[in-house]
């Protein structure tokens, strides 16, 4: 297949203008939350308290209206209301992230786009979306553990988060039910984790345990200690990571919840004694989420010795421009947050407007390589739908850019199987969109593609 030259889409609105000169890292030190009418009189000390952030989180349309006061245009509120009828995710924004939104230009705002869906921006789901795109449920070893790769596993002790993201890959379980999706969510119940610890103990090949959710930020200090200590004491577990969006949406947790940070510090100390790695994996998508609060949080965290890495999701209209990804990666690196992954958006329902193509992701991956220190260059990956696991973006077996379908193999996680990722139809070339509009045509074309992909995978045995 001939490589096409990709013409970059317009760069994302989030980035600082590059211009070729040295980048400067500006960390917003202003009292930016005071631009939101309801928090006009909130002082820095109050704003910097995680309990206040939790108590004042915005969780409903009424909450949004109250917070915005005179800024709540009726057309905007109606558009958000329409969005909430279509999304599988609850609304929850901390005051911190709510006030990082530029409400004057809210339709195009890259922070708003991540947390508050607008009805007018929805695009119908792709016919091949999957509720559980990563097949996490079918790879369950215990009710709380997904074991897909030989030496690493994913522990989900909680399904609640301090914010809810429109693009959540676990929208089937995370947060509460919505108009279009009912869920049975669970809080953290330590007495239910023994089977998981027992399983990890019984599988000595498991060296890496990811503790995710939901969000580890909502685990109590005693639970951080319990999970951390229990796992580090298993001789064959070498590394653990707590996954939390906290740094990006409630950085004051790390400066004001002393007990939580102390618990993490104790786990890190145990890790050092055992020569094991304790890491925190966080989730920034744009540089707008990084402020002076973030840098204070990173100072507090660096004292615990925890290693911090970032995993982003590539989101259309949010961070799908090179300048944005590049600047965000550099700015994070300046705070000792190591960019790790940029995920191609998973094929989950209710967020088609946020997805982009493999072609776009490959373009960004090519641009990023060489633009930052190698160890701070995020790897752009596709988590192959159906349980293939994370694959380097250019490692597909075959890619048809016209109909937007790519074929992936996964020799380690699922030898012999082929997985397919489908680009969002509205981002395909016109001929490709026309093919999807014709059921017989697209069936024929997909069958041909799959046959070629299978032959190629067979021939190259990879
Ligand atoms: C992402 C993931 C891991 C960890 O993979 P890394 O590439 O080491 O970050 C482990 N298990 C599952 C099921 C995962 O999805
Ligand atoms: S913080 Fe993570 S798990 Fe929670 S809603 Fe956002 S993407 Fe989903």
Structure characterization notes:
Among the domains are: 9-115, no CATH class; 396-462, no CATH class. It is 32% helix and 14% strand. The chain has 462 residues and is α/β, with parallel strands linked by helices. Strands 1-2-3-4-5-6-7-8-9-10 form a 10-stranded mixed β-sheet. It has a 3-stranded antiparallel β-sheet with strand order 11-12-13, with helices on one face. It starts with 43 loop residues before the first helix and ends with a helix. It has helices at residues 44-47, 50-55, 61-68, 74-84, 95-98, 112-115, 194-202, 221-232, 246-249, 253-256, 258-274, 292-304, 322-334, 358-368, 430-436, 439-460; strands spanning 140-142, 145-146, 152-155, 208-211, 239-243, 277-282, 307-314, 337-344, 379-384, 389-392, 398-400, 405-409, 418-422. The site of iron/sulfur cluster (SF4) has 10 residues, from loops.
Keyword list:
single chain; 3-stranded antiparallel beta sheet; binds pyridoxal-5'-phosphate; disordered N terminus; binds iron/sulfur cluster; alpha/beta
- Output the structural class: alpha/beta
**Shape verdict:** globular
Strand order of the largest sheet: 1-2-3-4-5-6-7-8-9-10
Percentage of β-strand residues: 5-15%
Terminal CA distance reads 18 Å
| Uncertain residue ranges | 1-12
Number of strands: 13
- The radius of gyration is 22 Å
Instruction: Please give the share of residues in helix.
Output: 25-40%
Averaged pLDDT, please?
A: 93
